[in-house]
Fold:
Amino acid sequence: MRKNKLLIGFFLALLGLIIVEYYIYTNYSKLTRETIKISFVVSDDNLDRWDNMQYGAEAAASDNDCIVTFVNSPRDAGPEGELDVISRQFSEGADYVAVASGYYGKVRELVKAKSFASSVIFVKTGNVKSDYNNLMVDEYSLGRDLAQHIIDAKESYNLLLLGGSESANANLAIDGLKDALDKSDIEYELALSKDSAELVNNVYQLRYALRYDGVVALDSATIDMIASKKDYLLDAISVYAIDNRQESVYYLDSSLVDALAYEDDYSLGYITVEHFLDGKSLTRIAKGVPLYYIVDKESMYSEQMEKVLFPFVK
Structure:
């Protein structure tokens, strides 16, 4: 009996020792582990429209020893200015940099020349078919799927595709829209405005040119203009938009927009940080993750869409 008690006591003491050592080891690892610093450099004059990406990046960083910073490079600084901002992030201690570039081709070459390539990835920019190490939305498919939504709704048969000539969304999305619409019985015209005055005139045409029963706003400035003039337009005109700002979510909720093609910047930010922390390829992490949605008033408050459209409440 005494022998059994000694054995039990020995094993309990050994178990206690193991638990203490494990506790010390795990906490020591946390204390000695280096904090990873990730900077996002975005080509823009302000950071407001990058809030959703920042929410996603910070969510991925929150359970890890990781600090996320967002900085902007003004558009007029050009590619060299963008590279200066990237270089400054590394000099200030960043381990990795994600770049949403306004001058992708040139900046990519400058990054390679500076030997930053192993610590830099590009998000939202590049060629979706050839730049496999970039993380971006397939804007051609986004445009195609928006067109299919319009076709299926059977509410518009004469569309005006309206946007700015320098629209970031317009090029590939237009191709997707046109290719899908060309296979339907919907007629359309494309109008890319060179300046704000021309954009206003094109918006006014929606009222007086009775052949239009729908408009697709290809960028933020266009949808803002249409929303501000919606009372002036005929109620019969359906409005569709490509945008991922909270303003356009409000327009959708207020029935100023019938359907919205919305890029999921939250997931883009989350996946980017996850890639840097885990070392997994972007292709593997992003596989099967939708990076854009076509959403209407009926679907916007579904459980899935609420998480995408209102990431700040997560």
Observations:
- Confidence is low (pLDDT under 50) at residues 28-32.
- The chain has three domains: 1-31, 36-136+265-280, 139-263.
- Residues 2-32 form the longest helix (31 residues).
